[in-house]
Amino acid sequence: xxxxYVPEIAVDREGKEHVVQGWQGDYEGGKLGFWLFMLTExxxxxxxxxxLTYYFTLHHADFIKASSELxxxxxxxxxxxxxxxxxxxGLGLLKxxxxxxxxxxxxxxxxxxxxxxxxxVKAQEWTNDYHEGIFLGxxxxxxxxxxxxxxxxxxxxxxxxxxxHGFHIIIGIGLMLWLLKRINSGKxxxxxHILHFNIALYWDLVHLIWVFVFPYFYMTGAGVIHG
Amino acid sequence: xxxxxxxxxxxxxxxxxxxxxxWMLTVDHKRIGIMYxxxxxxxxxxxxxxxxxxxxxxxxxxxxxxxxxxxNQAFTLHGVVMVFLFIIPGIPAVFGNIVMPLMxxxxxxxxxxxxxxxxxxxxxxxIVALSSLFNFNIADGSLVFNFADTGWTFYAPYSLNTDTNVxxxxxxxxxxxxxxxxxxxxxxxxxxxxxxxxxxxxKMPLFVWGIYATAWIQxxxxxxxxxxxxxxxxxxxxxxxxxxxxxxxxPVLFQHLFWIYSHPAVYLMILPAFGIMSEIIPAFSRREIxxxxxxxxxxxxxxxxxxxVWGHHLFTSGMSDLAKTMFSFLTFFVAIPTGIKFxxxxxxxxxxxxxxxxxxxxxxGTIITxxxxxxxxxxxxxxxxxxxxxxxxxxxxxxxxxxxxxxVFLFFAGIHYWFPLVFGKMYSEAKAKFAFYTLFIGFNxxxxxxxxxxxxxxxxxxxxxxxxxxxxxxxxxxxxxIFVSGLIFMFYTLIQGMRNGKPTTPNPWNATTLEWHLPxxxxxxxxxxxVPYVDFRPYEYHHGQPVxxxxxxxxxxx
Amino acid sequence: MANHKTxxxxxxxxxxxxxxxxxxxxxxxxxxxPEMFLTQYTFGMQMLIGTVKAWIILMYYMHxxxxxxxxxxxxxxxxxxxxxxxxxxxxxxxxxxADVSHITSPAQ
Lengths: 227, 558, 108
Ligand code: HEM
Ligand SMILES: [Cu+2]
Fold this sequence. Notes:
The complex is a heterotrimer. Chain A is mainly alpha-helical. Chain A has six helices and two strands; from the N terminus they run ββαααααα. Chain A has a two-stranded antiparallel ribbon with strand order 1-2. In chain B, helix 2 (29-57) runs antiparallel to helix 4, helix 10 (251-285) packs across helix 15 and helix 15 packs antiparallel against helix 16.
């Protein structure tokens, strides 16, 4: 599959020539394919949001109470961190496309750094939760362990969804490292950058998911005073 | 002799010398399709064996061969294998791979390496599914049969509480779902990007339309079941209470999520099958298809409306009355585009020069069986009737008429139709026709009595029954015996044809679509020598002869 | 993969910064809203702000602007999610067995 690809020509009845699109080096196809993949992620998280909203409807007050117990400061910090990482990712792609490979690599490293910060903050937050008796599998998180159904469901979904989101961040870091390797070996270059383009898209999607995960969990119970 | 795709191949990596490794690493869409077929039909026979076991047990009231618990495992095994391992990859994985790129004049799918990866993901899913069959006891090295006993639907909360191997089965279903998503993704990009110049959407063969509509379902419905299975696993290990009412969950939500995928999944099975029908009917009537656009768009409509009707599986589950009414109405709407297709096929045959070769026999047989399957489906879309018929053998007969008498029959039709293309050889027509009649008669004997038994109240998933149902189960049993004999005979005929059938020309059926204009049969590695310019409709016949002809450089010469 | 013009970094980076500031402003709004205004609609407001943010990200960071085919596929997917949402919510909010159900409160 490594031989040089020469586009074919099809000739119609008038003798006009038409270029045949091959699967090799199909930039638009690569882009379309990756978008389609991202749509599956949208549906996956969509279904989880649906589950969440289902129980929000059934256990309204419990959800608001549980939400007010989450750490909005750390969550907010992470929101901003992710925002900046989206910027560095975007600028990196821009640099790549304008021919500045070195600058692009720097930006990718910056994005990786920000992603690591995000994970660090997240880990801290989960540790705090754990010490307050809020974590998957703890006795206090089982039915009859002192929490209402709604609270258990809220925190259960909170760990599930932020966990899955965090998993996407980890995958993203892996992808970016791989991208750096491909850049170094010359496989990704200013006029061969579909991989970079798609990984940037992926990173934006991860950001996009957080844009909904954050307010749903952290802000739903904001501004409410509980005795 | 020119070289065919059996002689040479491209590999995902490396240049292995051995034929075996060349098959394992191949990225050629035709080879991958064949490998899918081999694995899928192996599992098909496993599931048939499970079904036959059930039929033996049901021959008489009371317990004969297996106990109640094993019976539960048998129908779960049958359902899981038939659905997740056989019919969901189904026609797209086999014929979507083998003929779809040929039909649009492409050299391969858009992402051949991904296609290779997808196949192996499917195999991994199969292996995980197999691993859930048994528990290995380290102490005495024994294997205990411990397959899930939940039914293929894995309804919560039972699936969360049973001690059988539900977890591995769920993981397998998840992996198989991923493979299905990637197949759909690959096909969507292929159909959008790699059509031959000049071929717009309304010049595509109808099978490609079927695959296209199906691919959207694979892509957008499968993630929902994927995440549902993940939630079920988390629930099982951490007791979050998502689906278990004892912990605050709502089992109805599980059913919603499950059927949001699994209903569109039945259209995922039938749409490519309808595509095969739309190929065979014009080819063997020697007439241009009637209402091309309506058939194409009805595929899209079925896929679209198919997303919106899942609730008809929840009529007796405690859904709100409002939702029930909505779903009942929406379900009726699916029947409309399906009906349109049927009328179009019949209108195509009207005044055509009908040639009763084996593929056409299968197609005609399916028109009968699927009509029964489809219309009985409309009856249980009515809430009132469904309250009575839900979870009876009536429903089971309905979906076997639709799945077996529709999808699988058309799958067989496709096998007979494209057999000469794939292997460059021909099976024995006489034997293949005999196999068809055996299977057709056996099938109706097997499933029609079950409509009556179900209507009279025979519940599904029971290993025992009242004596009054004896006669129906007996007829059904003999039907099953005839059916399975026919099945074995059919595969024997096909394998015979593959081994030492007569060599064929590239276009033995006088068909019109591009896959019949290959330079040789079986086709060479990279398909058409030259890509044609497509300025014609897919099924142009004039006085019973194909209109469009090509020279060896794929230039039109008519 | 040759069909794209080279881009001018200096000319295009401006838009990225503008979007960043827009998103930062909206994030600030996220924090202000529950304390300051429309507090009885916090959930809806938060989702609204989220949607605006998502829109901006899609259009500018993900370059959806000007993509016809991909744009429609996204609309289709989002439509389906919204549809699933609406029906399931209609069902659960018309739940008619709440009185006899143990789902909403622990069984005694
Ligand atoms: C070889 C012919 C077949 C026979 C003899 C057969 C027989 C049966 C029987 C006896 C049952 C159990 C009914 C009950 O007790 O509830 C069953 C269930 C089922 N069959 Fe088949 N079947 C055949 C082919 C198929 C095919 C091709 C499919 C493809 C989708 C299929 C899908 C199913 C499913 C999904 C169930 C329900 C399993 C469950 O209750 O969880 N069957 N079949
Ligand atoms: Cu259905």
